[in-house]
TrEMBL record:
Gene3D superfamilies: alpha/beta hydrolase. SUPFAM superfamilies: alpha/beta-Hydrolases. InterPro entries: AB_hydrolase_fold, DUF3141, PHA/PHB_synthase. Residues 759-791 have a biased composition (Low complexity). This is DUF3141 domain-containing protein. PANTHER family: POLY(3-HYDROXYALKANOATE) POLYMERASE SUBUNIT PHAC.
Length: 791
């Protein structure tokens, strides 16, 4: 273990760290206090207004009308109570039937099994499904297929296709073949995450084999499936098409003081020991019900009261939707001890994937810089399970800056929603109809973009030809990315101390206690602990398995036949709603006090200078290269030495890259025209996606490090006036009308026209069919990367 600072010269470091800790404590207390105060004021005003209104109405109905209103309400309340209890009984019965059927995925679509991981050399409990298109939907086998990986975080699979307006539905309606990766309740004996990776790689190859005339598959990863998708792409950069990462915790130390309390649970629990202990008590299996309980405790007002009151309040209309969601929510799944240990130690405690240190197995280190496919990251400010910092900070940890992203030929697009919660990212119909639909329609054009870091913004289209929404991609720097989301990167040193203490705790547990725990655990004890978990027991008690509820089904059927709902204007019904709001408010205040206490305890424990120094070895970040070092990379030098070599294809791509650079943003209509040029006209159509990608990367590096030389050497790439005119006509087609161009783009275009010696045309040209003609000229000087400011 590292020793703490002990010299007089280090006293200043102690003082700075102590001051930083005190500032975080004060910030935490202030923010939680302000939230509590604001909540109290808002609720007090609403409660007072509601009470005054209700008592005024009761006063105006004094006598028999008030008694009649109360009698009507009482009958309705009893009926709703019986129907709610019967719905919970049906939920328990559904759980039993779902478990007996092997917990199949909760997909809203028919499907067929394409591959079963149990049949592979290293068996796993994963399966690849082909989603069947519903009636009226036509799938084009030549279109880019989608492979969706759902989260394995305690629940079962299928949430990505839970309803018609979903990720699956969006892709099918666009004509894409859709495949879904699901998993069984029990992991295969000895299954590891490396085995899971090999299984998913086999699935991906099978999808590509089935669609030889289509581009590489799009891989969609939801939550825990998001980092699994990154692992898959980093290990197989040649197999994957664009990656869509939704609400995925990749940099698990990220967050903001005063918010995101779930990230403190590991430190306050003592690190990885509780998860490994739970797996040992489960006989080598970690019960997913523990994870679901953690999610529920994050918002007790909603999960322990609110969702049940919403059912009770409108049981006639919400019964079916409640049962459908609860079938997924209660479908608990297991992971092996080595799987959960890897997840906890490598991700949630160690944060090693973000820092380039994660190892799936000895000799297999995961480096996210190996990914070549475009990456689209979807996060939300309303997500308190995976806050934007956890979804996006890995970009800053993986790459030196946006210049390195461009040098490596990578395209990373991120989008931050204003308010949707974690589950809403996957199940919200509104999000599916807007964000997921626009993401899917933009994927085909992103691969034609110049490498770099972009923010996607989706706005109302105002009746434009593009459709109901206007999509723009704004080039961003990593500094702008980090500054656009709530973030406190200095606090990550506290989590490094957690990682170090967790390692020490695991060593002590394995040496002193684990042999005794394993010796005491029997299959009967593991089964008893599983059955007695509150999540399961509460559902079993409210099911036909409980003989004391034998009367409930017939009584509920009779109530439905004689249902007499009361008007929502009934004052006693409104008083009930106000009382429910008060209970929710009280539980929210309790949760805020709990979260504040957890955060203050965490900062006080792990944020002190001593433990920060203890954890310093675990907090080291990847050593990034400077701009000068990036310039001297052999691959950069090789490309710059060929600045005056190329043909009309290189010239067109170079001009488009320079124009995109001058604007700082890209509209989807221009991207679509660029994609049309790159895929339907020669010489691009016949050169293949890999060669086009390589050409775009090379010309992006030239534009990045030597913009002036990139412009001045354009004539060397074009043999004669005819080729120069063809190249400019192609660029005109992509840009559209000159009157619709930004001033910076127009200035850059005029530079092209001047250096090529061609006047501006009077109208927009059509894209020509061109041919390659290599030509050489003298090289120009090189320089360091430029500072790029988007519009």
């Amino acid at each position: 273990m590292d020793t703490p600072l002990n010299s007089a010269a280090d006293a200043g470091v102690y003082l700075d760290q102590s001051t930083s800790q005190l500032q975080r404590l004060m910030t935490s207390a202030t923010r939680h206090g302000q939230a509590l105060q604001a909540g109290e004021v808002d609720h007090a005003l609403a409660w007072q207004t509601a009470l005054v209104s209700q008592w005024q109405r009761l006063g105006s109905q004094a006598g028999w009308p008030a008694w009649q209103a109360f009698a009507d309400y009482l009958q309705d309340a009893v009926q709703r109570g019986l129907l709610t209890l019967d719905t919970l009984r049906e939920r328990g019965n559904n759980d039993r039937a779902h478990l007996a059927a092997g917990t199949p995925p909760v997909l809203d679509y028919d499907y067929e099994t394409v591959l079963d991981g149990a049949s592979l050399r290293r068996p796993t409990n994963y399966r690849l499904l082909r989603i069947q298109a519903p009636s009226g939907v036509v799938v084009d086998e030549r279109k880019q297929p989608f492979m969706i990986i759902d989260p394995r975080a305690g629940h079962g699979a299928g949430i990505g296709g839970f309803k018609p307006d979903s990720q699956v539905g969006v892709a099918l309606r666009a004509g894409h073949p859709v495949y879904f990766v699901v998993f069984g309740t029990e992991p295969a004996p000895g299954q590891t995450l490396a085995d899971v990776l090999r299984t998913e790689t086999r699935f991906l190859r099978e999808v590509a084999r089935r669609h030889p005339d289509a581009p590489k598959p799009v891989v969609v990863g939801n939550c825990q499936g998001g980092w699994a998708t990154l692992l898959l792409a980093a290990a197989n950069p040649e197999l994957t098409g664009p990656l869509v990462i939704n609400g995925a915790p990749v940099d698990t130390w990220g967050g903001e003081v005063g918010a995101n309390p779930m990230r403190y649970k590991g430190g306050l629990a003592g690190g990885a020991v509780p998860a490994v202990l739970a797996a040992d008590l489960g006989g080598g299996r970690f019960d997913g019900a523990h994870l679901v309980s953690n999610f529920e405790s994050l918002n007790p007002a909603r999960n322990y009261f609110g969702k049940y009151y919403d059912l009770y309040e409108n049981v006639d209309a919400h019964r079916q939707s409640f049962l459908e969601f609860e079938r997924w929510w209660g479908g608990y799944h297991f992971t092996n001890e080595n799987e959960i240990r890897w997840i906890v130690e490598q991700l949630f405690i160690g944060n090693k994937l973000s820092r380039g240190e994660a190892q799936l197995e000895p000799g297999l280190t995961v480096d996210l810089r190996r990914i070549k496919s475009p990456i689209i990251v979807f996060a939300s400010l309303g997500d308190n399970i995976t806050p934007p910092a956890q979804a996006l900070n890995w970009i800053a940890d993986t790459f030196t800056d946006e210049h390195e992203i461009r040098i490596r030929g990578q395209r990373i697009v991120y989008m931050v929603h204003e308010k949707v919660g974690h589950l809403g990212i996957f199940v919200s119909a509104t999000v599916a109809r807007k964000e997921h639909q626009e993401l899917a329609s933009t994927l085909k054009t992103i691969e034609s973009m110049a490498p770099g870091l972009y923010e996607m913004q989706i706005e109302e289209g105002d009746g434009e030809p593009e459709g109901p929404f206007r999509v723009t991609l704004h080039e961003r720097s990593i500094e702008q990315l980090l500054g656009s989301i709530p973030n406190d990167r200095d606090q990550e040193h506290d989590f490094a101390a957690v990682a170090k203490i967790s390692d020490a705790g695991m060593t002590a547990y394995e040496m002193l206690w684990r042999p005794w725990v394993k010796a005491m655990v029997t299959p009967a004890l593991s089964k008893a602990l599983e059955d007695l978990h509150p999540g399961r027991l509460s559902r079993r008690l409210l099911s036909d398995e409980n003989p004391m509820l034998a009367w409930l089904g017939p009584v509920a059927a009779s109530v439905r036949a004689r249902r007499a709902p009361v008007s929502k204007d009934n004052p006693f019904r409104q008083l009930e709603r106000s009382t429910a709001d008060a209970i929710t408010h009280a539980m929210d205040r309790g949760r805020q006090l709990r979260d504040a206490g957890d955060e203050l305890a965490f900062i006080g424990l792990y944020g002190n200078p001593y433990l920060r120094q203890v954890g310093s070895s675990h907090g080291r970040q990847r050593v990034h290269k400077t701009a000068e070092e990036l310039l001297e990379l052999p691959e950069v030098q090789t490309i710059l030495n060929r600045i005056d070599q190329g043909d009309i294809a290189a010239a067109v791509i170079r001009m488009l890259v320079l124009l995109a650079d001058s604007r700082g943003s890209v509209r989807r209509d221009r991207l679509e025209r660029s994609t049309q040029v790159m895929t339907m006209t020669e010489p691009f159509a016949s050169m293949g996606m890999e060669r086009r990608g390589q050409l775009i990367q090379e010309q992006s590096v030239i534009a990045e490090f030597n913009r002036d030389g990139a412009v001045q050497t354009l004539p060397a790439l074009l043999e004669d006036e005819a080729q120069r005119r063809q190249a400019l006509e192609t660029v005109y087609f992509v840009l559209g009308e000159r009157s619709d161009m930004e001033p910076q783009s127009l200035h850059t275009l005029e530079q092209f026209e001047q250096v090529l010696g061609l006047p501006a045309p009077g109208r927009t040209a059509r894209p020509p069919r061109t041919s390659r003609t290599p030509k050489k000229a003298s090289a120009t000087a090189r320089r360091a990367p430029r500072s790029r400011s988007p519009q």
